[in-house]
Amino acid sequence: MFKLPSLPVGKGSKRKMSDLPSADVLKRFKPDPESVDSSSQSGARAARVEDDDEDRGHLGISEEPVDDFEDDDEDGRFFGGGLNEEQSNILDIFDKAGDVEGEASGLTLPAVRRLVGQFERIVAKNAEQRGKYPDDPTKFIDSEADLDAMLKQFLPLTQNPALYYPELISSGVLNLFANLLSHENTDIAIDVVEVLQELTDEDIGEEEDELDEDDVDGAAATRLALAQIVDELLNHSIFELLASNLLRLNEAEEADRQGVFHILGMFENLLTFMPPLADQLVSSTKVLPWLLGRISKSPFDSNKQYASEILSILLQRRANVVKALDLNFVEALLMVLAQYRKTEPKDGEEQEFMENIVDCLCSLVSTSKGRELFFEAEGVELLLLILKKKQLSSLRALKVLDYALQSEAGSNSCERFVEMLGLKTLFSLFMGKADKKKRQASPNFEDDERILRIVATLFSNLPSDSSPRLRLVAKFVEANYEKVDRLLELRELAQTKLRIVERQIASSRAEISRLGAEIDDEQNQEWYLMRLDSGLFALQTADVILGWVCMEDDGIKAHVDSLMARKSLSMDDVVKVLKERASYLDVDEEDIDSDVLQQQLVLDGLINFLGGSP
């Protein structure tokens, strides 16, 4: 009732495709036959450009054959090394990658400039050949192969962003990259995306971030170089170009499926580096409808999961939530979530997908319009079906309900919740009767706290003397007040958690006083937030419920007084907790419709009833 759950935070870890690349994908990186034996294949011509010896320079890859195994055993027992052709090709790929990495350690700016010059000539040559012979691929296939190989030679530049990135910008290479994102050959566009994804990865220069204080300038320079790259890409409409490629790639093809994954990774890089860019991505492209369509497709795969993650990041921005609501995202996401009525996620990746969908829904129903659409889409009914399964997905359904029932806009859903017999399911979880194995996902009191919040919200939103409200109060009377006993038990658990952090805060206070320093409002606010996260919020919510049930029923109040007296407690302790909560509310008295003002009025009423003055 009094605290909205934290909205999901975007994940910043670097992503990888879960599936191993197929043989078709590996063939894209297979060395040219000429690099093994140029004399034996006179009919095939390796891709080359003018000034090859000069331009390949420092980053060129040797075309001389390398024998992995020597046939020096006279009995021939180890002839061939024991590897088949496909295994040898895979090892060749890793060997070539190792060679490039070794060369990158000594890369110089002149070498980078030669690389840029060669790249420009290859791009120009390919464009010229495609222009002259648009209907004859044999005329430009070699220059396209050169272009494919050349793009990969930009990857080592991530070793020193502060040195190399300014050169990429000043040379105009990023402009060429942007143009190639619209290349007729989607394989080339995908290559560019892979390069850009590496150039903008949040882990570049990671070693520099761990340097001593004397070298901290290196980390700052890396950050600045990355910012310059991102800014230049934005100037070249990177979001629009990436989104247009999403529309033309066919995920039935393995290479295109990988390409979609890299595009999503590029989105994640940019949004992680600068979260406000989420607004620009949504406003300048049609990525929202594409993401919704992608997460709605079956079967489940890595791209479906990744799309859900990007969507959850985008919907953390209020402007994007408004657009998503206009596109009827609430009903669509509920339909996606509906698949978990009968089945649970099959693995960790699908579980993460389900949690992303839940996070998206929470972002949407945190608004008044979202709550109204949730009610109209029969979201309460769906989530109750999931809750009744008492599985992992049930705990996620609780999270959505926590958001959807909040504030006045959630009043209709609160009444519907009671009408659909939701109290029975909710209080089964409240009493801890769910399968203990399924509740192992809640080791930090989070789900118990969420249940308390839902109960408090029901008390706030259900009309006085209405049938749904009377049924709610009756739950605390039945079975000899067992729900009241459980409520006091949860209150005690919250206090136990809170005492731990309060001892830490007391120690910090003493240390600050010993040093003769002052404790300012900012520090007090920080400590208060620490206490909220460590049991205080659960304690406050439990006491709000205690206040409500005592106000509603004299028998409940007498039972509570008796149990608290056994612990040397009284209603004064409850009042103290509620007063502290009220003191931290930022109330705008001129806004009579404010949820915060309504909370203040509720707290004042409870405090007055329990015997204290607000």
UniProtKB/TrEMBL annotation:
Residues 1-81 are annotated as: Disordered. GO terms for biological process: gene expression. It comes from the Eukaryota. Keywords: Coiled coil, Nucleus, Phosphoprotein, Repeat. Residues 83-193 form the Beta-catenin-like protein 1 N-terminal domain. The keyword Nucleus applies. It is found in: Nucleus. Its main location: nucleus. Residues 484-525 form a coiled coil. The keyword Coiled coil applies. GO terms for cellular component: spliceosomal complex. Residues 64-75 have a biased composition (Acidic residues). InterPro entries: ARM-like (IPR011989), ARM-type_fold (IPR016024), CTNNBL1 (IPR039678), CTNNBL1_N (IPR013180). Signal peptide: none annotated. This is Beta-catenin-like protein 1 N-terminal domain-containing protein. It comes from Cutaneotrichosporon cavernicola. The lineage of its organism: Eukaryota, Fungi, Dikarya, Basidiomycota, Agaricomycotina.
